[in-house]
Amino acid sequence: MVAGWGERKFWIAGLGWWAWLITLCVVGTGDDYMHITKRFGIVAVSQFPIHYMLSMKSAYSPLSLALNTSHEELNPYHRVLGPLEPIRRWSYRVFFTIHLIFGIIILPMLFFHTSALRIYILEAFGLFIYDIICRKLDTTTGFASITAIPNTNLVKLEIPIPATKQKRFTAAPGQHIYLSIPPESTPPNTSTLSIHNLLFNPFTIASVSATSITLVLRSLSGPTSKALKHLTTLPKAHPPISVEGPLGSTKSFPDLTSYDRILLIAGGIGATYILPLYEHLQDQMETHARSPDRVQLIWSIRSAADASWALKPEGRVPLNDDENVRIFITQHSSASEESVIPGSPTAIEMSDLKKEEVVVNARVTN
């Protein structure tokens, strides 16, 4: 499809569904104008239950359970049914707030509009309440350790997880959680405390231990990352942080070890997703008595300090000593930054590579 218009499969599904709904709107209506107008309204409202179901982010969503998938694979179909792309691109916060408020107030309005719509409204409302309950039950709060990574705008969080959820967190690499900041952890200088009650930000799980998960995020201009960055300045940064999940579709990935060669490429903070996959694949290769050289990782970062959080994975060979990992640094690094990744010079390419040069070098690197 045209760049920025989404994937072809979603358009095919959306147009096919649209054609089916138009058929339902006109078939059997005859020449009665009022009949066809009412049919359009009823058919439109009849889509509310599936629309709400496709928007559910809970791991216990009926569609997620039935199709053995996750919300990020279902959400594009939700967007096809109700596209608000211009607003979402302009400001996700405005989009989310309007989306939530409109989704709530329209239900009672339609419920009292006419009795013919009430069955669909009750179904949609039931799914909405079900999603809230599931997400609340799947949310845990723990006292997190929050630190700023030197010479970067990265923030590292270590959040304890209950033993009852440890198996779910270790079930698959590359999963993510939804993080929210409870009122007691909101920075005192925040202009409006209520905004954090509406923020549930997804973050990839960089690593999982027996008792905690580790997140690494880049602090930009968003209210959540700014609040977390502020918490790192506290004398004892162990505020309570709420986590929902884990979520993600990697648990249903095919067995990649059946391929002859596997090349993983990450850029910047995207390594929080790729590195767990790389480690998981290396473990699988060892389990199947296959050469670890079949899996290679290329990681492009701006500065050496951006890699410091990942260099010494627990119980593994340091990343800069791994012959199957190549890290490309695209900007000049100071001496203090370069010191964080000592090791084999073949593992780290220290240069001021431009983006185009990084791509070329990555292609020719064996």
TrEMBL record:
<dbReference type="GO" id="GO:0000293">
    <property type="term" value="F:ferric-chelate reductase activity"/>
</dbReference>
<dbReference type="GO" id="GO:0006879">
    <property type="term" value="P:intracellular iron ion homeostasis"/>
</dbReference>
<protein>
    <submittedName>
        <fullName>Putative Ferric reduction oxidase 8, mitochondrial</fullName>
    </submittedName>
</protein>
<feature type="domain" description="FAD-binding FR-type">
    <location>
        <begin position="133"/>
        <end position="253"/>
    </location>
</feature>
<dbReference type="GO" id="GO:0006826">
    <property type="term" value="P:iron ion transport"/>
</dbReference>
<keyword id="KW-1133">Transmembrane helix</keyword>
<feature type="transmembrane region" description="Helical">
    <location>
        <begin position="94"/>
        <end position="111"/>
    </location>
</feature>
<keyword id="KW-0813">Transport</keyword>
<dbReference type="InterPro" id="IPR039261">
    <property type="entry name" value="FNR_nucleotide-bd"/>
</dbReference>
<keyword id="KW-0472">Membrane</keyword>
<dbReference type="InterPro" id="IPR051410">
    <property type="entry name" value="Ferric/Cupric_Reductase"/>
</dbReference>
<dbReference type="InterPro" id="IPR013112">
    <property type="entry name" value="FAD-bd_8"/>
</dbReference>
<dbReference type="InterPro" id="IPR013121">
    <property type="entry name" value="Fe_red_NAD-bd_6"/>
</dbReference>
<dbReference type="Pfam" id="PF08022">
    <property type="entry name" value="FAD_binding_8"/>
</dbReference>
<keyword id="KW-0560">Oxidoreductase</keyword>
<dbReference type="GO" id="GO:0005886">
    <property type="term" value="C:plasma membrane"/>
</dbReference>
<keyword id="KW-0249">Electron transport</keyword>
<comment type="similarity">
    <text>Belongs to the ferric reductase (FRE) family.</text>
</comment>
<dbReference type="InterPro" id="IPR017927">
    <property type="entry name" value="FAD-bd_FR_type"/>
</dbReference>
<feature type="transmembrane region" description="Helical">
    <location>
        <begin position="12"/>
        <end position="30"/>
    </location>
</feature>
<dbReference type="Pfam" id="PF08030">
    <property type="entry name" value="NAD_binding_6"/>
</dbReference>
<dbReference type="GO" id="GO:0015677">
    <property type="term" value="P:copper ion import"/>
</dbReference>
<keyword id="KW-0812">Transmembrane</keyword>
